[in-house]
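Aim 2 progress update. The chain analyzed this quarter is reproduced below.
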Amino acid sequence: MHARRAMLIGGASAGTLALAALGYRAWDRGVWSAGKGLAFAPWQDWEGTAADGVKRPIRAAVLAANPHDTQPWLFEVGDNVIRVFADRARNLGTFDPFRREMHLGIGAAIENLAVAAGASGWTAEVTPVDGKLTLSPPDTPFQVAEIKLAAVPVSRHALLPAILLRHTNRGAYRADQPVSRGQQRHFLDLVASESVRIVFIEDTSARRELGALIVEATAEIIADQQMSVDSARWFRTGRRDIGEHRDGVTADTSGLSSLMVAAAKILPELSAESADKYWLSMTRETHVATAPLLGILLVRDRLDMRSAIDAGRA
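Predicted structure tokens:
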């Protein structure tokens, strides 16, 4: 009798310890702290106050979409002028050899700044700096734009609320929210120029062909070991890691359900190889498979993509 009681007590104690260990692991890995802490503080006070002066729109700029959340920008503030620099040390290496994605992210930051300027009582005149993308440039900062600010009556741009709402979601596309013809025309009007245009591909066979190219390109990327390493160094998995770096890619934006995200945080970290295989699987089975249409942005028609899959075969 005493032996049985001792065994029961011992088993209960072991179970309690196991639960405590699991709880500590969940806490340490940030299962319950997503969106909390200093890493997320810029989202909590993104509009700032008049006391910020010309720096105020920068609060919105740093919330912009950018590759792997590398945040590759620097801002130099003067009298009614903001100079924007590419912080080229914060790069994806061979994953972005010409720093093209880096400059797209910086462009998004400048757009955010220009949109938010009106709400701060400024108008923003953006002057890009002439330059050319080159292979593996040095890590030294490089100026990409100068923004002159002039005081104007406060006005809120229609897209201002979207700055806070924008976030990365790598889940499936929603079939109940198709992109209407009117929305497509709106996007086309936004970029209509001699050097830039969009091609929307809805034709089933054309989408299938383009989707296959996207999957093939993804497979080629993960087959390159150095490219995989350069991408993986920006993965942030635990609460401490996120708090220390305040940048990078986390499980919360992977497109998984809340339960699966919690499991991913608690379980041992995936290797770069396993993460790459997951990315390829999601690209093939989720993103390409569920996209109602695919769009290609052509800049001076240099990116042919098989003549934009025969211009959508529309």
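The chain has twelve helices and six strands. The beta strands are 73-78, 81-86, 122-128, 142-151, 196-201, 294-299. These observations will guide the mutagenesis experiments scheduled for the next reporting period.
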